[in-house]
Amino acid sequence: MDGLIASHKKEYNSSPQVIASAPGILNLMGEHTDYNEGCVIQTTINRHTLVAVSERKDNSLRFFWADKNEKKRTTVPNLKYKREDRWANYLKGVLFEIANLGHVLKGLDVTITSDIIPGIGLGASAALEVAFTAAVNKLFGFDFDEGQIIQAATYSESVFMNRNTEITDQFISTLGKKDQAVFLDLRSLDFKYLPVNFENVSIVIVNSNVPGTDAVRDDELAERKEQCAECVDFLSRKKSGKSLRDYTIEDISGGLGLLPDQIRRICTHVIGETQRSIDAASALKNKDLEMFGRLMNRSHESLRDNYEVSCPELDWLVKRSQELEGVLGARMTGGGFGGCTVTFIENRALENYKERLQEYEHIFGFVPEIFVCKASDGVEILYPEK
């Protein structure tokens, strides 16, 4: 935090009035169920985005990302999406929604620092949106509750940025707790906490470092959403329902020969993955990590074979992990076509695991980044201290 304060002072010749922090997120189970009103299990990670803000006397908005040494600027009356503003659009989207809610905004000086790698499925944009929303809320005394913070942060990405995202990442980054995962029902938004801090087992994230996957992922996932909607339209002619949450594997099987094979497999994944999330929540609650690991393995198989969002690099990382003694389960996590894997592994096997994955660079030419995930608290105000 000291470095952030120093950067803010140097850039604006004034001290920050508020500093907020929000964690990245990790999807443990429930991949691609969120836009089908399914269930997910996500946890926060021990990587964060910090946002420092101070009020200006005019209506200028000045944004400085210290790590990137990048600056963007606009004004309160000119909160418009501009492609060239890239990351600053997430901040503008938050402010646009706050203004839509009837609040009066003033000019801001903003400084950002983050150790969350963007574009690999760890909720980097959600952490930025949530931390900025919390900082602005504190600075101007808007008295937002957690639901309003989630709303403003989610609006920025899904509406202002016009991206195919749901509420999940912003929800977890706001409401996450240390040593806990969150089981979230996307239909009701009911949620509960589950333990993920185990004495002899670690959660390990591996960044595959497969380059240039964002555009491919966005196009492919937009197509998957359309195919899910097409399947619901077909099934609803025989059985009432508004999303895949309302149907079973048997309902899908009943459309054999009528549904295109790819759509049938895609919907089979979504329905099966929601049930796996429910079963996995029970396993975590009962601390049955072997069962949880088996469900992780099945999830990856379905993401690879049914939903078809894996890639050779992710499959290799998962397969090599699963072959190793001490690994309870492994799967890809996030949107797919690159990004990360997540592995539940006994601590005694960690060093051997890291050595085993050294082969990855020789085969694919990318250096994997391996780090142990610790669930941290959700968004918090670091300064001023309580």
Net shape:
globular
The stretches of 5 or more residues where confidence is low (pLDDT under 50) are none
Q: What Rg, in angstroms, do the CA atoms define?
A: 21 Å
SSE run: HEEEEHEHHHEEEHHHHHEEHHEE
**DSSP summary: helix tally:** 12
Q: How many strands, which pairing sense, and closed or not: the largest β-sheet?
A: 8 strands, mixed
Give the overall pLDDT as a whole number: 94
Fold and architecture overview:
The chain has 386 residues and is α+β, with helices and mostly antiparallel strands. The chain has two domains: 2-195 and 376-383, Ribosomal Protein S5, domain 2; 201-227 and 265-373, GHMP kinase, C-terminal domain (Alpha-Beta Plaits, 2-Layer Sandwich), CATH 3.30.70.890. The chain is built from twelve helices and twelve strands. It has helices at 2-12, 88-100, 124-140, 146-160, 168-175, 214-235, 249-253, 261-285, 289-305, 312-323, 350-356, 359-364; strands at residues 18-29, 39-55, 60-65, 70-75, 108-114, 180-185, 191-195, 201-207, 327-333, 340-346, 369-373, 380-383. Strands 1, 2, 3, 4, 5, 6, 7 and 12 form an eight-stranded mixed sheet that branches. The radius of gyration is 21 Å and the shape is globular. The two termini are 16 Å apart.
